[in-house]
Request: fold
Amino acid sequence: MNLNKKILNFKNLSSIFVVLALLVSFLPAATSANSTAVETPVLYADPQDGAVQLTWEDVEGAYVYLIYRSDAVDGTYQLIEILDTTFTSLLDVNVENGKTYYYKLNVYKFVSSTSEVVSATPNSGEYELGTPVIYADPGNDKVVLAWEDLKEAAVYEIYRAEEVNGTYEFLTTNEVYEGYPTYYSDNNVENGKTYYYKMVVYNGTDSKESAVVSATLESHEVELGTPVIYADPQDGKVILTWEDVEGATTYEIYRAEEVDGTYNMIEVFGTYMTTLHDSNVENGKTYYYKMIAKNETDKKASEVIEVTLESQDKTPIELGTPVLYADPGDGKVALTWKDLEGAAVYEIYRAEEVNGTYEIVTTNEVYGGYPTYYSDNYVENGKTYYYKMVVFNGTDSKASAVVSATLESHEVELGTPVLYADPGDSKVALTWKDLEGAAVYEIYRAEEVNGTYEIVTTNEVYGGQPTYYSDNYAENGKTYYYKMVVFNGTDSKASEVVSATPNSY
Reply:
């Protein structure tokens, strides 16, 4: 599509018809050999402040475009412009805001073809602030509040009360900018209660208040279930397993050596665990287990289960020598090893010299599912560390060979930021891409390219931090200049200056 534009004025309207007559006189005569139907043009009208932007696509083989306008859909259409085929748009500035205009496009190519009529109503971009509508969706210990964006709104405030005619206390403020969510989760609520909400919106000169909405949170009290525990006897240990108990917050495991004897608690877990390896047992003996599941208000006990460990007549397993592996990364060293049969405890030691003092960094007791790796995150890039492992089985211990890991220096040169400015209605949306190594982004604004730049926002870098900012303190018709400075603790870089002129369309 050709993007040439034409701005219409009526200073030389009398010449239009002369040009039309000349253009038509040069059109080739239609004959049965070369007469073809011309495709129907498609016209688009975009209302703006004091203007209507007309656009269309090229019509293949066309010789001339004629644009007509009327004040009524069935009224008289006056020719307002004749354009050659290098033009595919026209800005009609001879219009009044608030008034509707109707347009059609006529194309000549041996024969003529006319578009469908399109309409547009120019406006100044000023809209009356609407009344907000808020929705409240009760959940478990929360109320999700949602609303639709209102044109011209700048700030949304939400208020809450515990009675419909009670005192409404301020809950939150949502300033409007691009990408800002139109929802809020009120998590400071209790199940079984009713809450009342209302919203107030502002645009700088006016405010509107929503109707009050309510949300009743159902009681979600869960009756504590009865736990069921299972026991699997093995050589020198009992593996206990159970399923999650609904409503429980804690599991307590008890053991006795007689069914009616004293049950001693051997372990307590949160609900993240559903297994226990009890190694404090002897082959050839019988043990009795039970579990108690608890929450804040109740507790339930499982049935007692009996388990007998068979006598094991075999040669004790000799403790092997551990093998440790060290893999350097960025600001960390990953240590891995293979499980050794008969090992009960693994200890890892670290030194900064191969013959230096080795200090313990972690202890891994062995039970089902325990990982055979450890990440040492307390290291510095550019340094070498030495590690060794010692394993124990209660009667013996073995040490691994020393392994080393050298962390490369990962200093990243700070790049130059690139800032983008997109003008909107009384605002400018500023965006940028994250720079590797950057810690802080600062954005500055001036009203002249060489003027004084004042800081408008600072964005510290952390997970999920947005890479955009909406400058809502801008006036339509004014040009603003922006630049960004990034810091990484030791260096800083500034972007090129970019400009944007907000407008109401």
User: Anything to note?
Assistant: Residues 134 and 147 are 5 Å apart (CA to CA). Residues 14-25 form the longest helix (12 residues). The chain is about 0% helix and 45% strand. The radius of gyration is 39 Å.
